[in-house]
Amino acid sequence: NISGALCISQAWPGMARTIYNDHKRFLETYLTPYPGFFFTGDGVYRTSEGYYQLTGRLDDIINISGHRLGTAEVEDVVNHHVAVAESAVIGYPHEIKGEGKMPAFLSLKPFSWGYCTATLTAELRELVSKKIAKYAAPEYVQVT
């Protein structure tokens, strides 16, 4: 039972080998943090049985009104809603708060296709407000 950064020790056929016009950035981002390993940028949890669970991007932090918030935190709460199968939370520029956020890609469970977006948005805002804080509540919900 341990958490940490997901790093890969060997090359694989489809791995990236550079960033277009910025090879130095590629090296600094993926190969320098953990010498001898490819750093994926993801957090991971390994169970005592040896199973791996990705916990989210380690670099996905949103600054909302001076509060630093990981996108994975909000996604975890949103995914606990009975109608939500999975979600992705992203930041976007906001005139007052610095950054705003929204569950951009929200997939619903099959029995939930008739869910009204306005109702779902209100329920998700309430859920995130209770579990994290009011400032973390999503401003927009987009069902895909």
Descriptive notes:
There is one protein chain. With 144 residues, this protein is an alpha+beta fold. It folds into two domains: 2-57, no CATH class; 61-143, 2-Layer Sandwich (GMP Synthetase, Chain A, domain 3), CATH 3.30.300. 22% of the residues lie in helices and 33% in strands. It is built from three helices and nine strands. It has helices spanning 23-31, 71-78, 117-131, and strands spanning 2-8, 38-46, 52-57, 61-64, 67-70, 84-86, 89-94, 98-103, 107-108. Strand 7 (89-94) and strand 8 (98-103) form a beta hairpin. It is globular. The two termini are 35 Å apart.
> Helicity range of the residues?
10-25%
Counted up, domains total 2
Strand neighbour order, sheet with most strands = 1-2-3
Radius of gyration: 18 Å
Q: Give unreliable regions as ranges.
A: none
Helices, by number, come to 3
Query: How many strands, what sense, and barrel or not for the largest sheet?
Result: 3 strands, antiparallel
Tell me the overall shape.
Answer: globular
> Mean pLDDT score, rounded?
89
User: What letter string, H or E per element, gives the SSE order?
Assistant: EHEEEEHEEEEH
GO molecular function: acetate-CoA ligase activity
Protein name: ACS2L synthetase
Pfam families: AMP-binding_C
Domain AMP-binding enzyme C-terminal: 73-143
Label this structure with key terms:
ANL_N_sf; two-stranded antiparallel ribbon; ACS2L synthetase; three-stranded antiparallel beta sheet; 144 residues
